[in-house]
Design brief:
Strand content: 15-25%
Strand order of the largest sheet: 2-1-5-7-6
Largest sheet: 5 strands, mixed
Order of helices and strands: HEHHEEEHEHHEEHH
Shape: globular
Helix content: 25-40%
Number of strands: 7
Radius of gyration: 17 Å
Distance between the termini: 62 Å
Number of helices: 8
Amino acid sequence: MVTTKAPEDAYTAAPFVPDRGGLPALRRAAAECRGCPLHRNATQTVFGAGDKNARVMLVGEQPGDQEDRQGKPFVGPAGRLLDRALAEAGIDPGDAYVTNAVKHFKFTPTEAPKRRIHKAPTLREMTACAPWLAAELAVVEPELIVLLGASAGKALLGSSFRVGEVRGALLEREIHGRPEKLVATVHPASVLRAQDDADRKAAYEGLVADLKVAARALS
């Protein structure tokens, strides 16, 4: 008897990505993605959101708890903080396309009802989801990519990426065969995790400073 592997065992979303149809077709197809095991426990796929003509694409790590429940990226506390930081830096949040390197929420369940603890995706999981991000980049063709945190950077620039080494600098790299300009910064969730008010204030000011570099690159 010949056994057929489940699609998720291949750890690639490539078979699920449509060849045409733009963002609407990508979003519909992503809802059915079974390219890795993360789809099993997540509520739903959380695809990118925003204008297909957006000048800047913001790439985070993965959906959080609220994003998983609502089906939209950056709608939780970190998303609200990001919107505030963008506006303060001179970038209209409404003019950006926002997405994540991984489209399903990875978490550890707890004994407390409805409480789920975020768990970082592995490089294998990010690689599996890479065809979706490549397709988004091909459709949107942003002038600038803002990498929010280490996972986003690793997803696009490789496993050696370190936020602290390049944050706040305008980078130029070839991504999926296309020259791209990028600015790396911390994920807004890390600002919320700061130990006290002083640390949180400093972390937020650092995020805004990095986003101002992005704003100048777009001016």
